[in-house]
Amino acid sequence: MHSALIQATAIFSLIVAPAISEQPDKEESDRSEGLRDRDRPKPLEQAASRRLVDGIPVPPFGHLLVESENERFPRYGGYWKSNLSAWPETSNEPIDTAPLSHAKYSGGPYDNSAGKRWVEQINTWFRNGESAGLAQDAFRSFDDGHSSIRPLAFPQLRFEDAIPNYENVGDAIFRHRITFGVQSYGAAGKSVIEASTRIALRNYHEQGGQAPLFQKAFRVFYENNFLFVAPAAGSYGDQGDEFSCLSPFYLHAVGNSGSDSKLLKPLVFTSAALPPNLKTRILRQGLLVPMLMNLFRSNINGDLLSPESHVPAYALPPEAKDHYEGPSPFLDGLLNAAHDLKHIPPVCRIRVESHAVESDQGYAHRMYFEDNTYAISSALRPGQTLFLSLDLRFSWTDENRSIVRYVSTVLRGSAAIRPLNKEGSRIGIRIPWKATSSEADLRTDLLLLVHDGTYYSSPAYISILHIQ
């Protein structure tokens, strides 16, 4: 595992100064300058009317669920609408190459009969016009090529030159419309994200100043079609779960260098299996990552509501091993679900009505608390209790479908959830600090979902670290 303290510093710079300015979208229109005519924005599909909550229109995906002095939900928080709405369509010209290859040494997702079978199936779907392929996707390595996927396995996928990090996300990722990226670095024996998180939290609680916003830097990945995978390194494994946060914004792979690329491959296949017109709608609204997270977590253990489907790092099941012969329920479920999608699954969003901490008087600095619309992360110190009042009714749905079910459940740790209305769309939560002698399993995690009558949403999380 390569040392990457410099990368931890780069991520910390993202935390302090995100590369995409949080300006109203109307001020971003000039950022599409230089796009080719065929890439310029085309009108997005619009429903006849916006879904209302208490008479308030539910904002589009990418809006922050906060209020300004003069307006409700007035702006984006890193969502680059002009770039997304100009995402190229699948080509109208015949594409000579198939999306995928299982040639010898191609490095397909599974070097076994299941992998070969799925390469052939997706290629058949593509030839029949049933799947989009990978002409709208791009891959980049952010560790100078230390970890990667093989171009021979993905003939349609565009590969951008490997670079050492993603310090400037606008230039490194979004302007090139990178959809998949890996980075096999570690820092201080931990994942790079975890190492930088610990630096930020320690500095804040010891020195005060501005509260860290370490997840905010990665929310822009989630909202701009960029799926990032990195190795968990020493943050997760036989020693337990040592992550400070459960995040919906990226994936960690159990293991060290190269584990990230292996975990990514089935998700690249998933993108190739999507129906063509639906995939273009997904990409032009910035919804690729929420959709992939939904399908991945729904199939990795076969149950989206299982705690094992919501962990900070994942290992592929035994079916992924080379030369394995047997059933492949994960890959089968994942790729069939992608191919069979009829509309875009919902995205669970959290509107924080109130939050408060009890017994905070004895500490020099305020509690760390971060609201990122799709996730809440915080850290409790001894004697503290966090109280939250949340509203899930402003979750995003495709073509303004109604939400028919709300789910809020404790994944791990101790918390009390109290419905504030009949539907459970508004909830009150109490999370007390807990003591432990272990260096692992220091979080309370909650899962939030909505259901549109057909699909569950991508998950939202509340993740609270208990500082010892």
Walkthrough of the structure:
- With 468 residues, the protein is α/β, with parallel strands linked by helices.
- The protein has 2 domains: 1-344, no CATH class; 351-466, Sandwich (Immunoglobulin-like), CATH 2.60.40.
- 23% of the residues lie in helices and 19% in strands.
- It is built from 10 helices and 21 strands.
- The protein has helices at 5-16, 81-85, 113-127, 169-174, 192-207, 216-223, 259-273, 276-284, 288-299, 329-339, and strands spanning 2-3, 52-53, 56-57, 138-141, 158-159, 180-182, 185-187, 190-191, 227-231, 236-237, 240-241, 251-253, 351-358, 369-371, 375-380, 385-391, 405-412, 416-419, 426-432, 443-451, 460-466.
- The strands form 6 sheets. Strands 5-4-6-9-12 form a 5-stranded parallel beta sheet. Strands 14-15-21-20-17 form a 5-stranded mixed beta sheet, with no helix packed on it. A 4-stranded antiparallel beta sheet has the order 13-16-19-18, with no helix packed on it.
- Strand 2 and strand 3 form a beta hairpin.
- Helix 7 runs parallel beside helix 10 and helix 9 (288-299) packs antiparallel against helix 10.
- The longest helix is centred in the middle third of the chain and has 16 residues, at 192-207.
- The two termini are 29 Å apart.
- Mean pLDDT is 87; it is low at 1-6 and 8-48.
